[in-house]
User: Fold these one by one.
Assistant:
Number 1:
Amino acid sequence: MAERFSRLPVANVSDSMSRMTAGGARLRPMHAGGVLAGPALTVKARPGDNLMIHKAIGLAEPGDVIVVDAGGDLTNALMGEMMLMQMIRRGVGGIVLNGAIRDSAYIRGQSFPVFAAGVTHRGPYKDGPGEINVPVAIDGMVIAPGDLVLGDDDGLLAVPFDELESVLAKAQAKFEAEQKQMANIEAGTHDAAWVDATLRRLGCEGLD
């Protein structure tokens, strides 16, 4: 399922979910490039503390996406080069941090998907507390363990596990419709009559 979603733009998936869900504009890709898609292994961490993130790396199955809600605090980095190397070695699918990273130059040189809210050189604490595999929320987007987490250059999205099939069908249809629309634009046959029709419906004057 993750592989099928990875072929679609996150924007198309978002459109298919009524544009009501998003991980927030602050969470941006920090890696060299590449799509994030995989089931969520969730972590709730104290701001600036990465003890439970270390534990989650040890628990992660190949393809899992570690999703960390650390309150969005950017004072201390939650991960850097060494943790990234561990995740790559274990076959983790990617990591989402509602917090900061460091060793950003190294991370930018890798294809391993890393989404975070910022960068700082100040390192983390390792005292806890924290929780693993509990529902977390990032900028209003709730992520439950096992939900599908998607990310590309436009941002992040979580698709609830029990909605995967229906959302995939809608997103695929949206993608195919946009491909046809772009072909019409290229051919000069795009029909924009809906613009004036919408303006008339809204009572706009001076169209004729």
Number 2:
Amino acid sequence: MTGFIYKISPRVAWARAAEAGRFDGAPVDIADGFIHFSTAAQLRGTAAKHFAGQADLVLAAIRVEALDPAALRWEPSRGGDLFPHLYAPLPMSAVAFVRDLPLGADGAHQFGELA
């Protein structure tokens, strides 16, 4: 599969991962045993459910083809929708871009154009 999947992360956690050259996951990822990602269509729901009102976040776009296909699984989650889960650390070499994920005046995150 080609294209992008996305990770929302607190800026400070992402900065530590960038220094290390890999993202091992947020506490929820580590507890679940895989790194949670979203597709472009799932992002707004993920932000609303798990990051409502949180500022100082970043959005990372990950190139699917740069990930180990044996470690990336599409599994049912919210509403039976298939979500991408990575059962390995995320190498920074797979990251296409990272940008701010600001809150709008309405309190919702502003995603802008996605790749």
Number 3:
Amino acid sequence: MLACCNLLFCSALLAVGKFWLDLATGQLQTLTVVILAFSGQAVLYVVRERRRLWSSYPGRWPVLSSVVDVALIATLATRGILMSPLPLLWVGAVSGAAVVFAFVLDLDKVAVFGRLMMT
């Protein structure tokens, strides 16, 4: 269920980039990297806890690695290093969408776990 939601999220954002923003192929590839990195972080924080996403604090190392990952991908994508550049606004929009996705995915996870009596 979580993987299907992630697939829908990533596909929807990629479709926005292709059909609404009309991005070129290089920019679509950059957008794909940003989407995969940010959605991966969202899924990481959702699946690390059976209860609500905020039920426990993550350790220092996962938080540090997340900050480095997001900062590195955002820098590479906005500066056009090793990939076509994307505007900071679009990278920020994907970041915001990933945060919303994490909370929606968490609601789904709790509902499915409750239904399967896994809590």
